[in-house]
Amino acid sequence: MKKRITVLSLLLSIVTFSQDMRIPVDTTVVTTNSITIKGKKVSYQAQTGTQPVFDKNGNTKATLFYTYYKRTDVGNTEKRPLIMSFNGGPGSASVWMHVAYTGPKVLKIDDEGNPIQPYGIKDNPYSVLDVADIVFINPVNTGYSRPVVKKGEKVDKKYFFGVNADAAYLADWLNTFVTRNNRWKSPKYIIGESYGGTRVMQLAYELQSKQWMYLNGVIMVSPADYKVIRTGGSEDFAVNFPYFTAAAWYHKQLPTQLQQKDLLDILPEAEDFAINKLLPALAKGGFIGETEKNIVAEKMAYYSGIKKEVILQHNLEVPNSYFWKELLRRSKGKTIGRLDSRYLGLDRKETGTRPDYSPELVSWLHSFTPAINYYTQNVLQFKTDVKYNMFGPVHPWDFSNNNSRENLRKAMAENPYLHLLVQSGYFDGATTYSAAKYTMGKIDPSGKLKNRMSFKGYRSGHMMYLRKVDLEKANDDLRKFILKSSKNIGAAKY
Known about the structure:
- It is built from 14 helices and 15 strands.
- It starts with 5 loop residues before the first strand and ends in a 9-residue tail after the last helix.
- The chain has 2 domains: 6-227 and 365-485, Alpha/Beta hydrolase fold, catalytic domain (Rossmann fold); 234-360, no CATH class.
- Helix 4 (195-210) links the parallel strand 10 (188-193) and strand 11 (217-221).
- The chain is α/β, with parallel strands linked by helices.
């Protein structure tokens, strides 16, 4: 393999690190490589480094660590799409989709996503780098990204850590990135996973209204919608319920007449029950009649694999966290994963209302942390002693004035080119597939934009791409979305 390495600000980097281990504010390392995608060789350049966040007066507020992959064996790149990629948290590095989904390298894991040794990376034969260039961005305090403050000063947390603040400074940063890399003429996409779903909904309108940067697509991967999630309201319990059916089906805990059917044959039944029966019942609260309450509880037990008695003890409001503890309590004495319920955990006690830990998350950190540290330093050649933050300190996070749903609607209404793709795993119990569908309907209550929205589901969890079958399928779905929405379809008008 041939590599070309260019290091800018090398002297600055060495001096800075030797003094106080700070990350350089503005530096670049370039390597070249190639990969075979869909049976064809793709040559590319990987540009990794840091780029400043400037305030309105041109002062440096922070520096963001990024990795930019650009295909080099094509001619005119003006029409070539650019994907701007974020993860979530808030406070999570852009590591997950970088080295497990869309990038040219993926983890060395088994076909279901479990860690194997020796740790490391391998080529990703399904990457969308064949059809689009990709930049992975780490928000402040994630990855190697850090605020820039003088000694004795405190970090301006309000500038970075909130739904609106986050989108505002990231939009400014993207404007600089697109300008520096001459990508203004390219079709543009933003993709966000988990909290990244909220981030890209807000960011779409922030880019359009403040930076005058118009997108072709927004991609939400396992999106977290904080208008529903963790509210404890009737909507929260009802829209998440079909996930119970999916997880119970996977672990073979449903009644025989359901268990013998395919997953995609039973989920529409569960969705219909959740919206048309469970939601109205929950809305009645304590005024629901005993007959109706028992009928609904019976159906909940039928579609969830947990006992009617337990459901009634919860007044029909069974939290996801209790379900993770309860589903296999009696049959296997194990818990199931929060972000991916295919994973099993072992608690100190079988009693209790929620698991001791998230087995899927510790499994992922087991695989990802060695891989990203090795890859960054040894392949991308970005050398530093600064800690790579898989999760960084960003709290308290300001969720006030969260109008991200409505802002995405306005962006789509104002931009006839803008399309939405949502991708979810059926076994994700944190940001459920059914809640993602619900969010899509709430983004556009008029229904006039639904022909520009699409949903794709996968038989895995939050990071559906960790399962090899879904890594290929999800990338193919993303590839088709990009190719279709980046075509020249004429004037942008209604």
